[in-house]
Design goal:
This protein is mainly alpha-helical. It has six helices and four strands. The strands form two sheets. The chain has a two-stranded antiparallel sheet. β1 and β2 form a beta hairpin. The longest helix is centred in the first third of the chain and has 31 residues.
Length: about 190
Amino acid sequence: MARKTKCRRCLVLDESKKVKYNNMYFHERECLNEYIAHKRFLEKEQEQKDELYYKLLKIHGIEKTIDIPPLFYMKIEEIRNDSGLLGKVNKKYKCGVPYNALSYTYDFCKKKIEDALLNMTFETKLGEMYYCLSIVRNSLIDAYNHKLKLMKQEKLQTKIIDKDMSLDYEFTASKKKKDETDISELL
């Protein structure tokens, strides 16, 4: 009798054959592949989150030794999980704006943010960060449309380049004219 083990993906406790991966048991194909794909997704998302973190440090002039306030991360997670946009109350897992889109929007709004930081005074660093996040939140759609426009231009540009490169330039080798006095064929 085989030992009962629980698949960590589907949480089914049974005696079927399972694969051990990182000291956890999974059903061979489906559950293991889903787990690995989800793990890759989380690693990629963590890289994007780190990029956003360093961008925030640079924009707000925070040293790396000082941590960004956790309340600010809660606001970013609300945007990421789509729970605070447009009056939505229900929380969805990772269905909102991705971290790389937030990072791109910070780049897109860089001039607006710099102007706001120069012209306004804030009591706390958290208030400054909230204000900049509200600028970013209001500019998400504009940044998305700008990115789409750039992608269309790039696609059109590559299509034109591919079309120019695909023109067949036929180099015809000069054909030798048969000399009527050539008798090499007869030999």
